[in-house]
Amino acid sequence: xxxxxxxxxxxxDGPILSPDELDITQxxxxxxxxxxxYVVSPGGPIDDVPTVDDGTDEPSGPPVExxxxxxxxxxxxxxxxxxxxxxxxxxxxxSRYGFDITATFDGxxxxxQMVSNDVVTIFESLVLWYxxxxxxxxxxxxxxxxxxxxxxxxxxxxxxxxxxxxxxTELSPDDSIADLIAAVGDEDGFRI
Length: 192
What we know:
The chain is of the alpha+beta class. It is 35% helix and 14% strand. It has helices spanning 10-13, 19-22, 79-93, 119-134, 140-150, 159-167, 177-184, and strands at 30-34, 37-40, 97-105, 108-116. Helix 4 crosses helix 5 (140-150). The two termini are 27 Å apart. It comes from Halosimplex aquaticum.
């Protein structure tokens, strides 16, 4: 079968999607109708979103106190209120893993939230997002390599990853370590 004819190995050679590219909430063809429930339009953009009546007449937000002049005072949110809200939100998703991050990168505030039942997916989303925020010009895999190399935390790779690296070269057991460094040490680095 020729490459490109639905060969499963093509997926490995394709571009890596960023977490923002996987976020459907910003698409004009998608509208959230309830917490975690979406309507996806197969045609044009969605203009009117149907509302969902859950049968309760209770307000969805925190209670608003009335001022003496009849105007509504905005509620004062505390850090513990935000943490309690996020805790409830994560409990309601039913997912095993999740994160909600607000971070600053050179004065720019960025936020990211994700939930998943797959521990690798959630970790990958977090580190890819973080690396993209640090430097938009350097390839993400290079940023991650630099961060791991410069961190004071030693990383232990499974032996299978070293085996895959060695198999990706044309070296034999008779070759030297210098031959290995020459084989994988081009300026683009190597992947484990």
